[in-house]
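Mods, move this if it's the wrong board.
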Amino acid sequence: MKKIHKLVLKAYVGPLLAVFFIVQFILMMNFVWRYIDELTGKGLATSTIAELLICGSINMIPMGLPLAMLLSAIMTMGNLGENFELLAMKSAGLSLMRILKPLIVVAMMVSVGSFFIQNNLVPYSNQRMYDILYDIREQRQELKFQDGVFFNGLPDMSIRVGHQNQETGLLTDVLIYDTRSNNGNMTTTLADSGYIHMSADKTFLYVTLFNGRTYEHTRNSQWYDRNTMRQHDFERQDGTIPIDKISGGNASKQYNESQIRNMVELEELMDSLHIQIEETTMAAYEPLLKQQLFSRDTTILQSVKSAVDRSGYHDINYYDSLPNLSMRSKAKVYSKAAGASRSAQGAYSFDEHSSKVAITQLYRSEVEWHRKLTLPVAIILFFMIGAPLGAIIKKGGLGLPIVISVIFFVFYYVVSTSGEKMAKEGTWESLYGMWLPIVVLTPISVYLTIKATNDSSLLDMDWYDVRIRKFRRAVSKRLPSWMKFGKKGDEHKTKRRK
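Not the wrong board. Structure tokens:
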């Protein structure tokens, strides 16, 4: 028995490791392609790039493990079936579950390990990865011009050169668009040649242009819709351009807080968000109540209304007397009501924004909390789908197993993405949205396991043909003669036409 288990383990571990590294490589290529524009032209150290790639690969592990488990399970069992080794084991009296026992242990170990990776390692790698990206975005971009291509590495500026002499640095056919002015003016500069150099601390550009013309599109202060253009010819023009405002933004805005927290920290964050949402809701509702906008309301926020001290609030009882007021009094009433409405609307809008931000963060935190549990379960389910399916199709290699794995994984990815999106939007509860793929895949894994255990041919068309014929005969017994399937029904229809 131990020899058989060693044989099965040896046949499984090799493909599992190979497939996992292949999947990780493919995912890392997508990662590099996503951030390639931010990495080029900044003279980054090799250690920085290596650390970024390591953090990105750790972040891709939760996505790569389920696919690796599925594909390796199909390949292993398909190879054993194709070489008749699986048949020999069953002939010796071993059931499929006994054959899969060591592999199930491996799948459970991988599942437990993935939980610790997802809960502890991925949050740290996410934070480190975004910190590195933030530092990269803060670095000044190297000044490299391509012939005939606009350089957009500076804020509110675009520079195009016809040709750059690599030896002397001389630029020809220089075109500069400058929209840095706060009053809406735009300056366009054309020059035959010139030099553009960056300062040693990379905070300024020294610009020297020869034989050119500057066009300034100005906006008249009196007639704002009337555009005027000023032009100025020059033989030589020197200037400096500050570039100290180039920034990739606040590091905290590069990711949401839920991506850098484990389950315990997520629970603390969700508790604080619940309190914040409650406080902002109270703060948004109470000014409206004070303005008597909801004084007669009996449907909105019952629990909140009961918690608000309504002493001193008076119902609006002047509605019936409004038609009897003078026109001057009506105007005063209208003005006072409009002012109170605008004041209440302003207070509510501010608190509404704060509450919406907290609610969005709460939804994301709940999604991340459930994600850390669904991943280990998905790994086991993918194994329980792949192993029986490989035993059924009895095809090894990479051809058919890859096709089947991609189909299942795409299906899982679409369902998972749809559920996650609806959970983040608040359309569904996070519990339903994140566990939807598990609920969908569980019956499939149970069905395939039963079929493989009973040695049923999933793709045997004769088996399905027999079941379809039995169903048709059962249905035909309950139908009139002219509605029956087969030759008798056709003969009856012919007689009726005659």
